[in-house]
Write a structure and sequence with these properties.
With about 270 residues, this protein is an alpha/beta fold. The chain has 11 helices and 10 strands. The longest helix has 17 residues. The radius of gyration is 20 Å and the shape is globular.
Length: about 270
């Protein structure tokens, strides 16, 4: 599909555009994700693709390429423990610390919406088990850099394949309406808890405001060490003192001891903002 020089050019483009660091051995991944798009556009090499994006900035090609390279299948209630820790430990602690304030949760790089909707269901389950506790309510802000992903998130409809990834029959029955033909829609009270906004994690977070809790799970693995550190510093600036950061199960926060304190939850680790 392309030579090494073209691949190198594409790697630099992707890192500059959205921070994603492609390994030198990831040519197969790029091929599998971009083949169809390149065929449609009659583009033969990655070098030609980058050149076309640069010479035709308004063509929408850049957005299509970023979409193709950043779209990941996600699970409902991924790894289970973060949502249990949120319900059993973090929410009661936050309500005690800020009883009169509305809680704010940020789901960063929300992909196809499973994480923020899982968070909305978790809030509902917490309210059912502890009525009257969340007196001031809670808001979930979910962001992603992919426009097509955000459109899909807002539609809040999933096929049976997506539904089968981590959703229990009980939650499916309680929180979804069947649309027939193997499709399910998130019920309005859960859907309306989430506000979706476009955001590239390389850009400013200032417009998002302050949060009590940030879920930034399974996305930092795609960034270089420096970019990862910068993102974690800027996430810290959005967290209230004592707020919590949830990372992916295989991700660790190395360094930054002046900003975050590690909290063992057994299972799992979360990070408290200093």
């Amino acid at each position: 599909m392309s030579g090494n020089l073209d691949f190198e050019q594409f790697r630099i483009f992707l890192e500059k555009t959205c921070g994603i660091l492609l390994g030198a051995n990831k040519q197969y991944l790029v091929s599998s994700r971009l083949n169809k798009l390149m065929e449609q556009q009659k583009i033969n090499t990655l070098g030609e693709l980058v050149s076309r994006i640069q010479t035709q900035p308004r063509s929408g090609l850049r957005e299509q390429v970023v979409d193709a390279m950043t779209t990941n299948e996600t699970l409902w209630f991924r790894d289970t423990y973060p949502f249990e820790v949120l319900k059993g430990r973090v929410l009661p602690e936050m309500i005690k610390a800020y009883p009169a304030q509305r809680l704010r949760i940020w789901s960063a790089a929300c992909s196809s919406g499973q994480e923020p909707y899982s968070l909305a269901m978790t809030l509902d389950e917490f309210e059912r088990s502890s009525p009257g506790q969340l007196k001031s309510g809670a808001q979930i802000v979910a962001t992603d850099l992919s426009g097509s992903m955000l459109t899909a998130c807002k539609a809040a409809e999933y096929d049976s394949l997506a539904i089968g990834r981590g959703l229990s029959p009980d939650r499916l029955q309680r929180y979804f309406d069947s649309k027939g033909t193997g499709r399910w829609a998130v019920k309005a009270p859960i859907k309306n808890r989430v506000e979706f906004r476009p955001l590239n994690l390389l850009d400013s977070y200032a417009a998002l405001g302050k949060f009590d809790i940030v879920f930034c799970r399974n996305v930092l693995i795609y960034f270089s060490a420096d970019v990862k550190k910068d993102i974690l510093k800027r996430i810290h600036a959005t967290l209230k003192p004592g707020g919590y950061l949830f990372l992916g199960a295989s991700e660790a926060l190395n360094g930054l001891p002046d900003l975050y304190q590690m909290v063992q939850c057994s299972p799992g680790i979360i990070y408290k903002a200093k």
